Structure formats: C-alpha cells, structure tokens
Amino acid sequence: MTIESPGKFPFKRGLYKDMYRKRTWTMRQYAGFTSAEETNKRFLKLLQDGVTGLSIAFDLPTQIGYDSDHSMSEGEVGKVGVPISIIDDMETLFKDIPLGSVSTSMTINATAPILLALYIATAEKQGVSLGQLNGTIQNDILKEYPARGTYIFPPGPSMRLVTDVMAFCDGHVPNWNTISISGYHIREAGSTVEQELAFTFSNAIAYVKAAIEKGLDPNKFGPRLSFFFNAHNGFLEEIAKFRAARKLWATIMRERFSVTNEKALYCRFHTQTGGSTLTANQIDNNVVRTTIQALSAVLGGTQSLHTNSRDEALALPSEEAAQLALRTQQIIAMESGITSYPDPFGGSYVVEELTDTFYDNAMHIIEHIDELGGSIAAIDNGFIENEITRSAYEYQKEIENKEQYVVGVNIHEQEEELEQDLLGINTDLVNAQIDSLKVSKNSRDNGKVQDSLNSLQDVAKGTDNVMPKIIDCVINRCTLGEISDVLRLVFGEY
Prior knowledge:
Elements: E1 26-31, H1 36-49, E2 53-57, H2 60-63, H3 87-93, E3 103-107, H4 112-125, E4 134-137, H5 144-148, H6 155-172, E5 176-177, E6 179-182, H7 184-188, H8 193-213, H9 218-221, E7 225-231, H10 235-257, E8 269-273, H11 285-299, E9 304-306, H12 319-335, H13 349-372, H14 375-380, H15 383-400, H16 427-443, H17 446-461, H18 467-475, H19 480-491
Parallel strand pairs: 1-2, 1-9, 2-3, 3-4, 4-5, 6-7, 7-8, 8-9
Helix pairs in contact: 1-3, 4-18, 8-10, 8-13, 10-11, 10-13, 11-12, 17-18, 17-19
C-alpha cells in the first residue's frame, strides 16, 4: 500500500504539508435569531469567546425571498435564523464588527445574490474595499431541490444566478468563496456516506460546467470553490470520507476539466457536526456526540468547523450551550495534541480501506449520474431525491428494529423533565423588527426604488450579469422581497 505525503496530489492526506501545525482550522459558530440586533449581540459575544469566523443563519422568509412584513412570513420571522429585509438590517447585524478583518459565512442559496449585495454595500459603508472581504456564500441551489427545499426559481435561472455571483466575484471580490457546495444537507436528509460524496460532487461538476460555459477559467475560479460536509457518529467512516473527498475532487478537476493550477484542485471544506444526530432525550449526551464528530472532522483535515450545541434538538442554542460547543473545538485544538500530526490515521488499514471504498463507490454513483445526463437531469427525474429517501427509510427502520442504537432513544432510556432554560423567541423584538421595516419603506425615496427595480428587471430579461443591478437596488434601499419579486416575475417559480 502506497501512502502519499500530506500536501501532495491527490491530497488524500491533507491539502497542506503541515496542516494544523502552523494554523488551526477556522472556528465558526452558526448563529441567527429574532432580529438583527439580537443576533449582533450573539456575534459580539462569540467573537469575545474566541471564534475566528462568523456563520449566519437566516430565517425562512429571508431564505425564500419574502420581507418580514409579508403575509407569507407570518409566524416564521426570526424563528430559524436572523431576518434580513433591507440594508438597515445588515448594517445592524454587523454593528461594531469590522468586515475587513472578520471571515463571514452565509448559509443562503435562492437569495444568495441579494444577501451578498447587502453584505458588499454594508462593507462599503464601513469603508472596507471589496478586495478586503473574506468569507463564503453557500449559493448552492442544486441541493435545495432534492434535499432541503428553500428554492424559488426553476433550475435554469437559478444556475444563472449562481454563475453570475461566481463571475462577479471573479472580477471584483477576489478573496470571496463564491459557492459552498453542500453535502451537509444531503446527509441530514438521510443519505449514506457515499451518496453525500457523490451527489455533492455531481452538483459541483454541474457548477463548473456552467461557469466554463459562461467563459470563466476553472484554473482561476477553482480556488474560490469550497465544500460543506457533515460529520456524523461513525468516527472512522467520517475520517475516511473526508480523505476520499479530497481525492475525488482533485481527480475530477484534473481529469475532467484539465485543471493545472494546484490550488484549483483543492477540496477545501467546512464541516458541521450532525444536527440530525442530536437527541431531545438526555441532551447532555449530545456533547459527547458532537465531540466525536468534531474530532473526526479535524482528523479528516477540515479547514473550518462548527460544533452544534447540546440543546439544539429542543430550541435555538442558548448562549451557555453555544459557548460550550465552541470550547469543545478549542480544547481539541489546544489540549489534545492531535494538531501536531497531519493525517494521523494515514496508513491505518481500516481507514485506508474505507477511504478507497468510499472513493470507488462515490465515483460509481457519479458516473451513473453522468449517464442520466448530469446532476440537473438526475434532480429533474427524481433519481437523487428517491435515493436519499430510500436511504433515510432504511436507516429509520434500523433504529426502530434496534439494529442501530441511539442512546437515550431506543436504549438506556429514562424519564426526564424538559429543560427550563431554553432560548425562546421574543415576539416583542420580532414585532419591533417588522415595524422598523415598515418605517424604512415609508421613509425612503420610493421613486428611486422603483427605477432601480425596473432596471434590474431589464437586465434579468437579458443575459448580462445581474449582480451590479442588485447592488444598486440594495444601496437604493430596495428590499429583499421586492428584488425577489422582480426575479420571480422574470424567471417564474419552481
């Protein structure tokens, strides 16, 4: 068995020779709730506690293109993330946070161009140049159709928006990761390890092809692609999955797209511990699960990590639980000693065999998707969704038949009282957010707003990049919902 060196193609053992010896992974904590003001307070606390990157959760209306005061938003404002409707909200979200020196990840897809435009406009108001901005926007619409559901437009126009963001950043925001191709949500929906890898990379292939058709060079935009994977409880399997992922992507980029720039071969990825593995029963057990999962991500060579909080199966993370989740990462980084050894499981017969098996099985699925006509065709004909659903059903049967144990759920159960100190949504603050938006709409120059929206509509009907017009819209105080409605009018809904 040949054991490659870390930092050498196909990067199975890590992207860099020294890995964490010189620099640890970025420690992110995902946050967003109630209002921009409340989320800003959580961000400032997280930065004080030692996070090295922010990660924004947006509420459901923001994700699917509705303002907080829209009738469709009723009951959902601030529930699963922060509501962002107008530039005032984004400015409040980042009050006292210098965007030129913090790395920000935004989990947003259908409305990704609008949120990126709001971020850019906010940075410029802070006096931060586009060249200083560092972070990631998820912008991965393809996984939404079979696995997550927060899509707005049909796949064709959605792909145009994805590549417009890629092209705009290629020319104007050089240090921004323009897409984070996500296996996380595919795994959360119930896929296997191999399916998580295969469906993620099939989507990535579709994005690269679309970008090339737009005239972009994969050697240039390749280094700005990033990935987002899940870490579940199978400790050795997850380590092997991350190793196989790097080999798969490096091979695909070199062999399919003739990429020669080494950095464009890198599978750089963020990892989040498995939300679907958390239990509402005996929630302290979730600390143990999260620690195992975080260790697998670090031993597998992640570039960035979020650790879930112990109480997330019951409510939004409390401040105390979020701090403990962060401390879990910090203890792994500062006390375990494993950062001294790049790919310490390299050469293990179990991990090497699992890595090769995952690589081969995932590549087989990718090739089958190629035969179906590629990822978009496999989404349209239901193949990917059906495969995920089948795997999820099989796993649930194993739990119900006790072929797969979940401690506290189907074994070692015990009676317990519900936690009393859960974080709730303050409806008064939500109402204040909505009232503030209504005031903003009434106090702006609505003639300028309409002119900006008309101009965006004209560009959307053509083939020019929509990003400059969306930026103009947000600067002129158009709302996320108004911009989304213009795009709905032009592109239709899926």
